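Lab notebook: predicted structure, single chain.

Context: the supervisor wants predicted structures on file for every construct in the current expression panel, including those that have not yet been purified. This is the next one on the list. No modifications to the sequence; it matches the entry in the shared construct table.
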Amino acid sequence: MAAQVKPEQSPQPADFETLIETHQAALRGFILSLVADPSTAEDILQETNLVAWRKAADFETGSNFRAWAFRIAHFQVLRHRQKLSRDRLILDDDLVNTLADEAVEDDQSPIQARRERLNLCLARLPERQRAVITSRYFEDESVAKIAARSGTNANAVSQLLHRARRNLLECLGN
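Prediction complete. Output recorded below exactly as produced.
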């Protein structure tokens, strides 16, 4: 009798990319709370993303991505600390481990849950709407500058922003 092969439960690349994008702010905050240096935190975040992509097949769809990614980030922080073992450290390893465990165990705050919902809604927007939202609100570009860069007029950009905001509100309301 042949053994049945269980289908893999790893996420598809697009789904995994959405999960990673959705959790970037939380991961950044978590890492920053452990290293207290924004530049170092960004480096560790990038390493965490690389490791997560390499281990994507190990992640089971439907399980707690946040806890899984935080554990990877925790190990990357520890790895970074080992590299700096000759330098004076502000936090000892026991405290870093305690903070990491507590962060993984904490339920998401309402603000964090809303932020993650917003990131999911942003990912669902059509590309042009997502791009104009990113330019206007994340890169703080004026409507006139977006219009000039895209070769259109300010009114068209304003209309696109209006539709994008409406879509975001509808998505967040569901």
